Amino acid sequence: MFKWLNKQGVQSDKGFIVQFVGRFEVEYQEGEKIISVYVEPGYTADNKFCLNIESNSFVAWADGTPIPEKKQKEILKNFTEAMEFQNIGVVVE
Questions:
Q1: Could you read off the pLDDT of 48-60 as tens digits, one per residue?
Q2: What is the pTM of this model?
Q3: What ranges do the domains of the chain cover?
Q4: Are 39 and 27 in contact (CB under 8 A)?
């Protein structure tokens, strides 16, 4: 379940936060760990607003600590669910 923090961010009851910090930047946060994700706004084939992200967006935390592949998949799932809660699709390129 998600709750709105403000107009730019949501928090999950699973313990992570997804927050827009700029036009082309979204932060994913778990506790003290943060990932800054570069995003490009766009539209899906069915004309839904979406964010395009790179496939390597979740390979390391902001401090440079590598993220294992299993955890990367979990973070992508969390990120996508947070965006869907905000009625925004996610396209991984």
A1: 899 999 999 999 9
A2: 0.93
A3: 2-92
A4: no
Angle at 86 between CA 85 and CA 92, to 5 degrees: 85
Query: CA 26 to CA 45: how far, in whole Å?
Result: 23
Question: 19 with 26: CB under 8 angstroms?
Answer: yes
Helices of type H across the chain: 69-85
Mind listing the pLDDT tens digit for each residue in 19-44? 999 999 999 999 999 999 999 999 98
Which burial class, exposed, middle or buried, applies to 15 when counting CB atoms under 10 A from its CB (0-12, 13-18, 19+)? Answer: exposed
Q: Residue 69 — φ and ψ, nearest 5°?
A: -55, -40
Residue type, 69: E
Query: Averaged over 50-79, what is the pLDDT?
Result: 97
Structure tokens at 87: 């009625």
- Report d(CA 54, CA 93) in Å as an integer: 5
